[in-house]
Amino acid sequence: MPKVLVIYAHPETAKGSSTRELYKHFINSYSKKNPNDEIIVHNVSEYMPFPLKRIAVSIYNKTLAKSELNADEERFSEARQKWIDEFVDADKYVFVNPMYNLFLPTEMKSYIDMVMQAHTTFHYDQNGFYVGDLKNKKAIHLQCSGGKYHCSASDPDPKIQDLADQYLQTMLHVMGIDDYTSVFAEGMDQDPVNAIEILDNAYIKAENAGQNF
User: Fold this and answer.
1) CA dist 156 to 25, 28, 131, 141, 161, Å?
2) Is 99 annotated as a binding residue?
3) Is 43 among the annotated ligand-binding positions?
């Protein structure tokens, strides 16, 4: 049974969310096509337990020095390892987020920092280059943004880019995941008159992506 890991980065609020709706259109379509797949969902905006902080750095340094961890470090390391193992074991990845200031939400970036583990999700070859260890897997990125970032012909400032999607695709490539697609709902704030049409078109793209993922 294929295992689908959803990393969702958006606070749960009573107010409607285009990010949430984009995800619903995708996952409902996917589930209809693949009813037996196991789907695991983590909203890292609500619960991101193992950010890269002092205890994580201490564990890293002690591991390099082959020093013994204290009790708190042992608990932290074991619990974090479960999340890393879950990532490695997954067959497909769904990343869902709104764009925040041209980038990913902090919690999703923190999640990527956690699973980017040398000798687990990637390693270095004899020349010091990255080699991804996660093969035959696929990923999709669902992202909403108020501005438009993927219509280069009419972009007045080429320096204003979607750094979030570029970064996510690059990090997954480092880990060996090159079967990567994106679906964007963008420009609703920039073009509010056509916001409903923009979202409807994005939802259709998400549903089609769900059928083919």
Assistant:
1) 32, 37, 37, 25, 11
2) yes
3) no
Residues with Cβ within 8 Å of residue 58, at least 6 apart in sequence = 73
pTM: 0.92
Please indicate if the annotation marks 64 as binding a ligand: no
pLDDT, one tens digit per residue, over 144-202 is 999 988 865 555 565 568 999 999 999 999 999 999 999 999 999 999 999 999 999 99
Per-residue DSSP letter, 52: S
Q: Could you give all domains of the chain from N- to C-terminal order, each with its CATH number?
A: 3-212 (3.40.50.360)
Q: Is 111 annotated as belonging to a binding site? A: no
User: For the residues of 68-84, what is the DSSP string, one character each?
Assistant: PP-HHHHHHHHHHHHHH
Residue 21 tokens read as 């709706």
pLDDT digits (tens, 9 = 90+) for 77-92: 888 899 999 999 999 9
